Amino acid sequence: MSDTIERVKCLIIGSGPAGYTAAIYASRANMFPVLYQGEQPGGQLTTTNEVENFPGYKDGVTGPEMMIELQQQAERFGTDVRNGWITKVDFSGPIHKVWVNGEKEIHCDTVIISTGASAKYLGLDSEQKYLKLGGGVSACAVCDGFFYRNQEVVIVGAGDSACEEAHYLSKLCKKVTMLVRRDEFRASKIMASRVKNTENIEILFNTETEEVMGDGQVVTGVKVKNNLSGAVSDIEATGFFVAIGHKPNTDIFKGYLDLDETGYIVNAVPGTSKTNVEGVFVSGDAADHVYRQAITAAGTGCMAALDAERYLAAKDASFEVSTPQY
Ligand code: NDP
User: What would be an example GO MF term here (predicted)?
Assistant: First the structure.
């Protein structure tokens, strides 16, 4: 083996709640995990202001603060947290190979994938501006809806997520305006009829977002255009929710792992973190298009570490000895 190749017992890819929870468990099980943080250290939560629904934080916590605490907790037990981006993998053999930043090669006994998913945004400058300011743009109604109690909000999208989130928001907000770019929903009939039958949800079909308006700090409204008539109008709103889908960050695993049609990693054994490749486990949003919460990601991170530990123990009876072999 060349000097430049490192060997690790447990490599964790990704630094959201799933990755750090896996790291806490793996380091406490003497698996000496190495965790690569990826492009957005801390994951999606670093774009969230206040997290109020994670058990244990009774007064809430900011997303970035929570991720720093999770990192420190993982490091306290010995996790080697590193900056770096996994650019390539090869899961074809018994030793799983990964490359960091296209250069460094690592050979791993186990890999825990916690690469998450990224919410899609429209890409408008005004949307990105208020997203970065934390001033009223969000891709997660369950996370942020509470901040818009008794206010008027706009949501974009026509899939199951948009319908579910619009319905969730309708219970908190005075009014929800839903912008659907075509003349029909993509969502299942039952989800679509639920929003259609909710009194405080107004659905605008054939309507696209021109601009998210604001006062420089927070959102004050949305400029929309009817794509049939060309008519432009303004909607007053303090929140702008985007629910046009997520993209799981799984491109580098194509060809090795079973992915569903939208790119989510498929659990080989339902109810576990196992993938179709032995020794490769998945946790968090990379395999979850339904729940997508920090707490569910953390839970599956724990599962992945326990599954990896059991896999190592079954493979190598000496694993329980806490000294690494290399
Ligand atoms: P989808 O891809 O199903 O829907 C995305 C929606 O966003 C579509 O209506 C699409 O419009 C719209 N959209 C995309 N880009 C734009 C844009 N630039 N401007 C305006 N609108 C845009 O994503 P979802 O997240 O809704 O769902 C993903 C998967 O998860 C689906 O399989 C869904 O069934 C599932 N899911 C299931 C749930 C449940 O069962 N409880 C809950 C949530 C999701 P258009 O239709 O015109 O393409």
Answer: thioredoxin-disulfide reductase (NADPH) activity
